[in-house]
Amino acid sequence: MTADLLIVGSGFFGLTIADRCARELDLKVQVIDRRDHIGGNAYSEIDPETGIEVHRYGAHLFHTSNKRVWDYVNQFTDFTPYVHHVYTTYKDEVFPMPINLGTINQFQRAAYTPEEARAWVVEQAAMLEGEPTNLEEKAISLIGQPLYEAFIKGYTAKQWQTDPRELAAEIISRLPVRYTYDNRYFSDTYEGLPVDGYTAWLEKMADHPNITVTLDTDFFDESQPWNKADVVGQIPVVFTGPIDRYFDFKHGDLSWRTLDFESEVLPIGDFQGTPVMNYADESIDYTRIHEFRHFHPERDYPDDKTIIMREFSRFAEHTDEPYYPVNTPQDRERLLSYRELAKDEANVLFGGRLGTYQYLDMHMAIGAALSMYDNKLAPHFTNGLPLDGPGLVDDGV
Ligand SMILES: O=c1ccn([C@@H]2O[C@H](COP(=O)(O)OP(=O)(O)O[C@H]3O[C@H](CO)[C@H](O)[C@H](O)[C@H]3O)[C@@H](O)[C@H]2O)c(=O)[nH]1
Questions:
Q1: What is the three-state SS of 203-247?
Q2: Same-domain pairing of 218 and 343
Q3: Which of 196, 320, 376, 389 has the maximal Cβ count within 10 Å?
């Protein structure tokens, strides 16, 4: 068994590296994944009972403002014109998310103009002093106390089970606040869903004679040929698994949130009339419900059944799938010590959401992989430059 490069993990980051190295540099690339399917958390499959495409690891919506990433992904799939919208249920009433003029006016039973709404929010945020330093302060500074209490506090408590004053302000900065009736969830230039589904797209990326993907193969299992002990130092490795796992948790665990999903097939054509319904009340123990048929209104799905998935969030144990980096001050300290170790790990680059301990959306993972290819892998394989450093941990974000 020979290869020029081993990639551990077949998610978007790993497959982007595999594609570039195989197609551009004509390298023999071996990809391994410990799961029984490719694609990491972007994997989707057809539910056998309804024929509806289900995202096994939660809804994945593709969006980017990066033209290079958009052109790149369009080589492998066409995109539907899907535009993501989210609603949230609070005290048995449904409001549009992210918070916009419609949300504010419905909440206040008012007909505020944009300027009046702004003035009202400023008034409701008046108790804050100084620069916001955490999620709670940041949220109140953006939307004021009453909207925070209604739409953010309970949802965030369920999603993070961490005091919002200990969470990073950036978490909430992901959500726009708009003083118009525009309730698009994302503000990116390009958006859509892969016409033939995520798995077809991911398979197309891997479909090249120079790329071999071997599933059910754990890098840390020494009984299989592509294991860490035998491979590191022999050929270059791009590692996209958890960085703390790579170093055997030597400096302690990095904390993650994991998600549990409960699927249900219902004998009705439409359960909630929209793809994602958030639940803001803390008394409802799931954070949201996905109804997958609504991601593809252009498809011919049955009109007498539908599949829904309730999403629950909790702290991850070693055996759980990691989803969201919690990123407490202790995590950040540990991450720095892992990055130091990674720098000394010759011929191993760390990338992707797990390898860098960063919440990367799909387009960010792809963008970061393209940068790693440009800045590290292509110079190494074409000009013999050393493969050093921890990869591009901050790139593409
Ligand atoms: O109704 C909400 C929505 C969000 N938040 C807070 O805002 C943060 C960021 O919100 P995101 O929508 O980015 O949260 P997720 O990461 O769970 O969202 C995921 O699902 C979204 C679609 O529903 C988008 O696809 C997004 O990119 C994807 O990461 C959340 O952690 C939470 O603290 C709330 O309090 N209430």
A1: HHHHCCCCEEEECCCCCCCCCCCCCHHHHECCECEEECCCHHHHC
A2: yes
A3: 376
Catalytic residue among 165, 174, 299, 314: 174
Q: Which residues line ligand 1 (CB under 6 A)?
A: 61, 86, 88, 97, 151-152, 155-156, 159, 171-172, 174-175, 185, 276, 278, 280, 361
178 is catalytic: yes
Q: Domain total for the chain?
A: 2
* Interface confidence (ipTM) of the complex: 0.93
Same domain? For 216 and 352 the reply is yes
Q: Could you say which of 178, 293, 334, 353 is catalytic?
A: 178
Ligand 1 nearest-atom number relative to CA 61: 25
Show Cβ contacts of residue 244 under 8 Å, excluding neighbours closer than 6 positions: 250, 251, 252, 253, 254, 334, 338, 357
Beta bridge partners of 97: 86
User: pLDDT, tens digit, for every residue of 64-108?
Assistant: 999 999 999 999 999 999 999 999 999 999 999 999 999 999 999
Same domain, 245 and 215: yes
CATH code where residue 141 lies: 1.10.3110
Domain co-membership, 27 together with 160? no
Does the active-site annotation cover 257? yes
CATH number of the domain to which 38 belongs: 3.40.50.720
Give the Å distance between the CA of 98 and the centre of ligand 1: 9
Q: What is the pTM of this model?
A: 0.94
Residue numbers of the domain that contains 109: 97-173
